[in-house]
Design a protein that fits this description.
One of its GO terms (molecular function) is kinase activity. This is histidine kinase. Keywords: Kinase, Membrane, Repeat, Signal, TPR repeat, Transferase, Transmembrane, Transmembrane helix. Its EC number is 2.7.13.3. It catalyses: ATP + protein L-histidine = ADP + protein N-phospho-L-histidine. By secondary structure, the protein is mostly helical. The protein has 33 helices and 7 strands. The strands form 2 sheets. Strands 2-4-5-7-6 form a 5-stranded mixed β-sheet. β6 and β7 form a beta hairpin. α14 runs antiparallel to α15 and α19 runs antiparallel to α20. The longest helix has about 40 residues. The chain is elongated. The termini are far apart.
Length: about 775
């Protein structure tokens, strides 16, 4: 027996036992004791085995040993290429893709000289995979196709299916779902014939990914569940967890949050048991998002923080940044915008460190939105412009749309309509479905049809005529596409000619654009003035006239009743006159106040005042209708709660909202007034259990151009002007107003009021 053969046998025995932590160290020590005296082929074999032993213990040492193998095997082209190939795989494992690519390219050149076609195809495939990781999709496809060409001729069907799947994954990353579907289906067809259940499940899962991105969630769910069934049968827990997580994502998109949590928690349990930290963190992040949508904010934050802790342990900076962004969004739900900004800025710093343009765009856009919408700060611009620039660089269509829309809003608010128009055009460019998109959908249907036919070959004869008609329709569609392309080409040429002939008119066009922008601005102002005028005329012509007619009729009846001397009847008529007088007085007051505010004649003087004291004063004034309906008031608020706003304006707001709650409550009903303390705001809720509103009517209540009116439970009338006044006063005092309602179950009106001067500094001051 040769020395080399004996050494190989010894090392095989060492490895055959397997190893735990202590045992592995023992075997490594024995192998390393043999190394100093080993030479030539013996040393190469020993180095290779040590590299394998260190693979899961210390990968850097594994790489060092394999480097020496590369040097020592340089005289044997085949062995040298194999060593470079293995070293490339190790570098890929530690995410050193540049060195991995270099090793695989060297291995490929050597293999080309040896004409080992199958080895060449393996190199092509690995080089393609690295290019895919590096987002060089064009190069990845070139190498995958070269690998496929060889494997179709000389490789196994399993290898062909693997490469087809790789090509499909590149098209999937490029969002070219028609081609992705074509290659995934071809791979599945081969794998189905081979009967390899693990590979079949992988293909089914990939098809689920395609349909998920096409928003065909039920179809995606069908493929995922088929993949899960196979993986459960095989007992492959790691891949089961992967599919369970995908199914959880589909149920989340379908707003079925309970089912989503069910599948996510099943995936989490498996991943924790396996000890896969990266995927455990990913599932915790997903669960946090579901709880956010369920408005369980504490549970959401708990899961996000658990996820963040794990990503920090494994040094996954990109995912840490993503979780920081999610926590930033979560704090926005609390209206804690300082904290939200803090987390978005941490995410931004990490994305900048990584050079992740898409992440930079998202975080900058989030910070810019907060500064623009909430703080009204000019600092928003630098973040929004950075977001726009990075969104365009990353070519992410959704981010391009969002950043353009925000810059349009920013410049519109500043009155720079020329700039606003520029970004509005960019926003509009993201809002179309191209002919290519429609063609994509047609191709998807074609591939689906082809695959279904190939699965059922015994039915092909009966389907030939149908397939022929489908083919004719597809060709007709292609002809239409070509025809549309020709028209588009001709149109494009005409556009270019027009541009050339009108180049000298550019300056005039710019002037016209500026004039047009000013006209649009004036048009908006005039439209609002017309709506205001129409609203007032409508109130005067109907709502204000009707009470006076009623007063005339009731007073006439009261005069006539003196002849009958019916005291109870006279009392009822007098009460009717009183109620109408109160209603009319309130209506006139609201019209005058709202008109003055619209004309800019209202002077707001903010100061600190106690909410409960203000509400108590309103309830005293409204005690009459409260007692008549025997209504119960519940308070859920701190009696010492203070806000910073114009107290007279807020008193009008409280009066109108509480009056409405009384008006639309049933006798002996309940009205709840709540106040929740936020960091910079107090959020108030005034809710009743009365008649409520439909969704369509709810959308009309704060609009000038709507004439929605409703009678109270005691037939009380209203003109709708009170809610417009509330909106006007709330917004000019730095707050917001919105409502929720369900027909037959009551309504809740929400308002926010600043707690300090800091917030009011950003509110435009109204001059008398």
């Amino acid at each position: 027996m040769s020395a080399l053969h004996r050494l190989t046998l010894l090392l095989s025995l060492i490895l055959s036992f397997g190893f735990g932590n202590s045992y592995a160290q023992d075997q490594i020590q024995k192998a390393e004791e043999l190394l100093p005296k080993a030479e030539g082929e013996q040393r190469i074999v020993l180095l290779q085995e040590l590299s394998k032993l260190y693979l899961d213990v210390n990968i850097d040492r594994s790489i060092d040993y394999l480097k020496e193998v590369v040097v020592l095997s340089s005289e044997n082209p085949s062995n040298h290429a194999n060593a470079l190939y293995d070293l490339g795989n190790l570098y890929r494992r530690v995410n050193n893709f540049r060195r991995a690519l270099d090793c695989h390219l060297q291995a490929l050149e050597i293999r080309k000289s040896t004409s080992d076609e199958l080895a060449i195809s393996a190199s092509y495939n690995n080089i393609g995979e690295i290019h895919k990781i590096l987002n060089k999709h064009k190069e990845a496809l070139e190498y995958f196709n070269q690998s496929l060409e060889i494997r179709k001729k000389e490789g196994s069907q399993k290898e062909v299916a693997y490469t087809l799947n790789n090509i499909g994954s590149v098209y999937w990353l490029d969002k070219d779902y028609s081609y992705a579907l074509e290659y995934y289906l071809k791979s599945l067809e081969i794998r189905s014939k081979l009967g390899d259940k693990s590979d079949i499940a992988a293909s089914l899962n990939n098809l689920g990914n395609v349909y998920k991105n096409l928003n065909k969630y039920n179809k995606a769910l069908d493929y995922y569940k088929k993949a899960l069934s196979i993986r459960e049968e095989l007992g492959d827990e790691s891949l089961m967890a992967y599919t369970l997580n995908d199914i959880g994502g589909i149920y989340w998109r379908l707003n079925n949050f309970n089912e989503s949590l069910n599948f996510y928690n099943r995936a989490l349990k498996i991943r924790r048991e396996i000890g896969n930290k990266r995927y455990t963190a990913a599932t915790l992040k997903n669960i946090g998002t579901v709880y956010k949508d369920l408005n369980e904010l504490d549970f959401s934050l708990k899961h996000y923080n658990e996820s963040l802790k794990i990503y920090d342990e494994i040094g996954e900076l990109k995912e840490q940044a993503n979780v920081y962004s999610l926590i930033g969004n979560l704090y926005s739900s609390y209206n804690n915008f300082d904290k939200s900004q803090e987390y978005h800025k941490i995410a931004l710093n990490l994305h900048e460190k990584l050079g992740n343009t898409k992440g930079i765009a998202y975080s900058s856009n989030s910070i810019g939105e907060i500064l623009m919408d909430y703080y009204k700060s000019d600092d928003a611009l630098q973040y929004l412009e950075s977001a726009y620039e990075n969104a365009n660089y990353s070519k992410d269509r959704n981010l391009q749309k969002s950043t353009s829309e925000n810059l349009f809003e920013y410049y519109s608010n500043k009155g720079d309509y020329k700039k606003a128009l520029e970004y509005y055009r960019n926003y509009s460019n993201t809002q179309y479905d191209s002919i290519a998109d429609q063609y994509d959908k047609a191709r998807i249907s074609e591939f689906e049809a082809k695959y279904e036919i190939s699965k059922n070959k015994e039915e092909i004869q009966g389907l030939k005529e149908y397939n022929r008609m489908q083919t004719i329709l597809i060709y007709l569609f292609i002809v239409l596409i070509i025809f549309a392309g020709i028209i588009g080409y001709i149109t494009n040429k005409n556009i270019k000619l027009r541009k050339e002939t009108t180049a000298t008119l550019t300056d005039k066009n710019r002037e016209l654009e500026e004039i047009n922008s000013r006209l649009k601005e004036s048009d908006i102002v005039l439209r609002d003035l017309n709506l205001t005028k129409d609203k007032i005329f409508n109130i005067i012509s109907t709502d204000l006239r009707d009470p006076f007619i009623d007063l005339k009729n009731i007073s006439t009846k009261l005069i006539e009743s003196f002849e009958e001397k019916d005291v109870e009847h006279q009392k009822a008529l007098a009460l009717g006159i009183r109620d109408l007088s109160v209603h009319t007085n309130e209506l006139v007051e609201n019209i005058l106040l709202w008109s003055a505010s619209q004309a800019g004649k209202t002077n707001f003087t903010p100061k600190y005042f106690n909410i409960r004291e203000s509400i108590n004063g309103i309830l005293q004034k409204l005690s009459g209708p409260i007692i008549e309906k025997n209504l119960k008031f519940l308070f859920n608020m701190d009696n010492t709660s203070m806000v910073y706003a114009d107290s007279a304006a807020m008193s009008e707001v409280f009066k109108n909202l509480i009056s409405n709650a009384i008006k639309f409550s049933y006798p002996e009903g309940k009205i709840t007034i709540s106040a929740r303390e936020k960091k910079y705001l107090v959020e108030m809720e005034i809710s009743d259990e009365g008649v409520g509103m439909s969704k369509s009517n709810l959308n009309k209540i704060f609009r000038l151009d709507s004439n929605y009116l409703a009678l109270g439970t005691a037939q009380e009338k209203g003109a709708g002007i009170g809610l417009l006044l509330c909106k006007e006063y709330i917004e000019k005092n730095g707050g917001k107003i919105w409502a929720e309602s369900e027909e037959g179950k009551g309504s809740s009106f929400y308002i926010t009021i600043p707690k300090s001067e800091k917030i009011m500094e950003s509110v435009p001051k109204t001059k008398a």
